[in-house]
Design goal:
Length: 108
């Protein structure tokens, strides 16, 4: 069975939470990369809002200048369902680029 791979991005994420993607079905997140685009260390939060709660994948994670953070590694995956929103926020304005890789509409 063919899978529908998708990617979602956001540039220069800052101090307001950026919604990277809102699921419209059962989807699987297979990768999240957050890169520091500044010359100083930043701290980031990556979380999923399930319409009622923020569930953190990482909170106040430091990323050094020019570095990146792989939120999911070792083959880990996260399943989201309809209306779950992937959000990223930094402690510094316009400081992080984000890339999310997903499998769209997995079978239920």
């Amino acid at each position: 069975m063919a899978q529908n791979f998708r990617r979602f991005t956001s540039n220069a994420v800052g101090t307001s939470p950026a919604t990277i993607h809102t699921a419209n079905s059962y989807d699987t997140i297979v990768g999240i990369s957050v890169s520091n685009i500044l010359t100083t260390t930043i701290n980031v939060d990556v979380y999923i809002n399930d319409s009622a709660n923020d569930i953190y994948l990482v909170k106040t994670a430091p990323i050094p200048s020019g570095g990146s953070l792989q939120i999911l590694d070792g083959g880990a995956k996260v399943v989201v369902q309809n209306n779950d929103a992937i959000k990223v926020v930094s402690d510094t304005a316009s400081s992080a680029d984000v890339w999310v890789s997903m499998v769209d509409a997995i079978s239920t």
